[in-house]
Amino acid sequence: MHMKHKVIEYYSQANVLICSNCFGIGHFRKNCSQKEEVTCKVCGEKCSNLKDHNCSGVSKCIHCGGPHNSNDAKCRVVKDYRAALTRNLLSKAPSVNGEYTNCQPSLADFPQLTAALGRAPYSTVTQMMPLNSNDVISKKLDSILTKVEEESVATRLVFDELKKEMIARYEVTKQQVDELEKKVGTMETKFQELSKQVFTIMQNICTSLLDPQGAQNANWKTYWQEQIRILSELKVPSSKSS
């Protein structure tokens, strides 16, 4: 069954030319007669240079005086001009609908399927295809699965190597921490010994100052030499360890 539909050519609304120099309607900037001045699209005032123009910021259209920019497509004057221009173009458009009124479709343009092919079952039609789509899809899936498996194996190997490296670094860091703890313990022990020795010497010095005659016996010189030697022995290992 064939059906006829009347086709009407679509005409869009006409584009309105607005000059970017004076913002007048119907011409380009290069054809503008206003050569020495430039019109501000916001306030509508004319000036010699827009860079030096102090615009008030209050929108005022030069066409209708409304509170909008002069190049606003929603301006009443611009809308009226567009409507008049569109009607003018439509009135001059040639009528082409009559060219296709006698077009009659031919049965030769719509060949029927042969009876054998039209009654053939689906299995027969699929066998007549040059390639089996199921085999193609199966091969593609196998290829994708193989690539995914290879990527998975490679990723697993990378993670295993990273895990081994992290374990090795952890062991090295642990050994270094243990050595530092041992050194700190040794230094604390030596510091305690030195503190005790210094405390004893300071106590003896204070006793000597309070009771000079009782403290300065026959062996006082030998005693102080022995104390100085002990302090020197305690000081030398600590300086080497640091």
Brief synopsis:
This protein is mainly α. 54% of the residues lie in helices and 2% in strands. It has a two-stranded antiparallel ribbon with strand order 1-2.
Layout of secondary structure:
Blueprint (H helix, E strand, L loop, with lengths): L37 E2 L6 E2 L28 H17 L22 H4 L3 H6 L5 H78 L1 H4 L4 H22 L1
Antiparallel strand pairs: 1-2
Helix pairs in contact: 4-6
How does this model look, in words?
This protein is mainly alpha-helical. The protein has 2 domains: about 100 residues, no CATH class; about 110 residues, no CATH class. The protein is built from 6 helices and 2 strands; from the N terminus they run ββαααααα. Strands 1-2 form a two-stranded antiparallel ribbon. β1 and β2 form a beta hairpin. α4 packs antiparallel against α6. It is elongated, with a radius of gyration of 52 Å. About 5% of the residues are buried. The C terminus is likely disordered.
